[in-house]
Each structure stands twice: as structure tokens, then as C-alpha cells.
Fold:
Amino acid sequence: MALLTATLRSAAPLIFAAMGGLLCERSGVTNIALEGFMLMGAFAGVAGTWFSNSPIVGLLVAITVGAAGGFVFAFWAITLRADQIVAGTAIVLLGLGLTSFLTEQIWGQAGSSPGVERLPTIGLGMNVLLPVAFLLVPITHWFLFKTKPGLRVQACGEKPEAAQAVGINVAKYRYAMVVISGVLAAVGGAYLSIGDLSQFTTNMTAGRGFIALAAVIFGNWMPWATMGAALLFGFAQALRFHVQALDLPIPQDLIIALPYILTLIAITGLLRQSTPPAGIGRHASEG
Amino acid sequence: MSSPISSVRMKRRPLLAAMAIAPLAGAIARAPAVHAQDPLVVTMVTDTAGLGDQNFNDLAKRGLDQAVAELGVQGEVIESRDAASYIPNLTQSAEQSDLTVGVGFLLTEAITEVANQYPDDNFLLIDAVSEAPNVQGVLFREQEGAFLSGVLAGLMTESNQLGVVGGIKIPPVVRYAVGFEAGARSVNPDVEVVVAYADTFSDPALGKELTLAQYNQGVDIAFPVAGLTGVGSFDAAKELGEGYWVIAADTDQSQLGAEHQLAVSEKGVDTALFQAAQQVVEGTFEGGEQSLGLAEDGVGLGNPHESVPQEVLDIVAAYEQAIIDGTITVPSNEEELAAFEPVPIDAIATPVATPSA
Structure:
């Protein structure tokens, strides 16, 4: 039971960022910026809570900041047609630098914020955002495969020229998906800072944005499979903690490597069938 | 004192100068005269946990702040984002300062390399020794302070289960862990100590999960030796509420949850940094190695929670005396721990009961 809840808790922030990344990539924009959005969201959540004394306001601030970050990324990657990998890297570095800088400016201490109030919990150590993460998966699936805008997003990602030719505004759909990815990843960051913990610390996302992106690829850009990948990563971590806590006579180094070994086994077995959207990284009017 | 703006400028100038000099370093001899008028510069280079870890690096910063206030030196901090930035950061520091402080075992190889490049500069390395002759390595006998935390935890636990949440498995962390277990086993033969490593010093969310896993397993007192990762241990204790305790390592962390902090296993990183700065100011700084334990007041047990009874503190004090006297040799690695025979209180109580002549 403890293993199950620990798995869900570890997987939830990954699922937020992964669903955002999935929608963004499905529309044809490579998104390695997730880590940056998450960190900005983690920071904004704490800053908003600190100034307003309300974690709900903090969450709204995180959403706003995530949207703004997404908009900046979209402007670079779509309007200015910058290389999407370079633009994404810039967002990650911006997230790290800006949050460190503002932490020192606002609270006058480097590296970490003071403690703030947390989002309400629903028992078993789970906060209100956790079920939202899992609800997002069917919603994303339904949107992508059952609605007209969702199918158009896929068209933009698979064959942007054809989508353009039938009158779909590719840039508009891509902008929307990038901004949504910023929002969702930021909520994933806020999950860590004001849901799970109660303060912001430098680089507290610790690569979870990249793991979320790995989950998207591992899940073959399909919502349910991506959730499965995020759960596998979460389970591997949770299992590692529980094996360590049981103090079994297994070498520590092997236990620490457990999540990575599991991931490696899963990827070598499954990744061969993984195919990205055909039009990813291509602009509509390139010929 | 100067205004904030001018102090920012003060900070930038040597840095810019260093950047300008760097490409020419081989060709132009560094002019010590530049430093003669200006205050001495002491720069600390953090490990990857960085400032704000509310632990090891912040403790070093406190020693630096003290040196700035009392010795009039100019203090600088360079934070390391990843292991690859240790050498560039230490090089930048060596260019701009009279004393470079490498905060942590993880910087050992990098500081040796840089110190060999700058044989006339002074370096202080916390938690390790270096082969370079101009590096002063300060080793703490963390196991002695941790032994006392273990005694306290062994007497205070209700579940007879204790947990160590380690950061990365490096010698100073291991010394804490084995000292803690040796102390706990000495006063409580039924106690079980589980040791887990997060493999990072900078992921508090992971630290929380690791601590929760131990608490759910029956542990009631956790001992995080994990930098920023250990911040999450307090979140875990707060989540489960009363009866779940944390013993902080290195420095007081009561700001994270005073009602859950049972005690602090202190480590005088700040004192070591301050004293090195003082030696540089007085011109007596030397490379080499020093070891600080209970006898030198380099480590200790502090800030016991108000619920800890006086009898327990008396027993802790008896053990402290026994370690200082050399009656107990605390194990410092896993092999020594395996060979360690617990020392029950009866074995050391007699000399304490007798009033000292």
C-alpha cells in the first residue's frame, strides 16, 4: 500500500509535464523545455503562495507563469523559427538562472525560499493535484483522438504542409499546444514545491522534466502508454526506497541503480516500435 | 559600509580582471601588489548542493560571513552547478583570491589539480585531504558527534528502529552513519538501524519519499546526512505528525520544523573556514592535514529538543567524556563498525560517577 501511494506520488509530477510535452510534440514542436517550465512553475507556486498566503493563488500564479514561458518558447520556436532544440535549451537555462536570481532578490537568501503553506491533502500523503494528473490522461486521449481540434493538432504534427494546404492555421495550433505544455509542466513543478514539499529550492525539479520527455518517447506519443511509462519510473523509485528501508542484504549500489536498470530493460524491449510524429520540428511552409 | 550597489561593483571588478587575465595567465606574472592595498579576498566554491542547502554549504557561508565581519576580508561565493564546473570555478577563485575554500569532499580531485597550477596560492579543503602541498585539508571526526546522536536516538526511540538518510555515499557521510549506529547499539541492544542513500545532495522531494519509506517501515527517528535532500526529511516528519523525529546533521535546521528536530549533530565547518581565513590574514596559513573531533570541539551534539529528559543528556555527556578520554574509539567506516563491540553505559559510568579530583 505504501509502495502504491509512493509510486503515485512520484509519477504525478511526471504525468503533468509528460501530457504537456505529448500535446506539444503531437503538434510538431520538439519540446525539451519541459524542465525549464517545471522549475518556473515550482518557483512561481511558492512565490505566489508567499505573497498571498494562499497556495491556491500560488497555483494560479504558477499556471500564469507557465503560460508566459510557453508563449516565449512558442514565439522563438514558431514565429522566429529558431531551432527548437536550441530554443528549448534556452528555456531550461532561463528557468534555472531566473529562479535562482529571483530567490535571492525576493527572500534575500541564496538557494531556497522560506517555508510556505501547502495545497490541501486528500489523505495518504497525496495532495489535491494528484488525482488531477491522472484525470488528465483520458482527457488528453479524448482531445487528441475524438475532437476536431485534436485531430487538427495531429495533422499539424504529421504533415504540416498538408494541414496548411487545407486551411488549418498550423502556427495557431502549435502556439496553443506549446502554451498548454508550459502550463501543465508548471503545474507539475508546483506539485513538487507547494504540493509535495513546502518551499522552493534551487533546481529542485532535478531533471524530472527530462524524465517526463523520456516518458513521452517511451510511451510512443500515446497518452495511456506515456502514463504507463511515468508510472514505471515512479514505481522504480518507490521500490528503491522501500528495498532500502527494509535493509535487505543487497548491495546499496545495486539498489540505487535499480530505477535505471528497470528503465533500460523496458526501453530495449519496447522502444523499437516508437515512432515520433512525422512532421516534428518542420515548419509548415518549408518545401 | 558601502551601499549595496557599490558592493556589487566591488565584487565584479576582480572577476572581470580575472577574466581578462585568464588567457594571459601563462605570460604575465600575477602581481601580488594588487592585493596589498585591497582587503584579502576569501572565496568559497560550493559543491553542487550550493547555497541555500540550509546545511553544509550554508554553514561554510556562515564562517565566511564571520571572517568578513571580524577580519575585514572580502568574501566571495562561487556556486557549482555540476561536477564539471568545479575546476573552472576553483580556477576563477584562485585567480581572484588569497584563500580559496573548496566546500566538500566532492571537490578533492579538482582542488588538487588547481592547487598544483597555482602553487603560491592558499587553499582550504573541507572534508578531505589533498596531495597538493598548498592545500590545508580539514577532516572532521563526524563519527564522534554522530555517536552521541546515536546514544540519544537509541534511548529516545519507541519503535527501536532508526533510519539514516544519506546523500551520496562518500566518506564523511559514511562516518556519520556508522558513528550513529555504533552509539545507538551501545545503549540499546534491541535497536535496528537502516541506512539508505538518495545518491544526490540536491533533491528534497526524493529525500522526503526516502524518509517516508523509512517512517512507514517503523522508523521513528530519522538522521538525514544529505544536504538539500535532507530538507525533505522534515517535510516527511511534518506530514506524519507527532512522534516522528529528525536529527539534523552539520547544523541547526529548526527553521524547517523545530517541533520535529530532536537534536543536532554539529560539525564546525564554519569555525574551520574562519580559522583558515584568520591564518591567511596573520600569514601563518600552512598546507597539510588536521583532524577535528569532540576533543577539539570540532563536532558535537547540540540543540536537544525540550522533551529530551535530563537523565538522557547525562548519559550522552558520559559518553562524550569517554570518547574524549579515549575509552571509546568510535568506528569510522563499515569494516570498523562490523568489528565494533557496543560499549554499554555500565562500562563507562564509573569514572563519571566519581567526582573529578
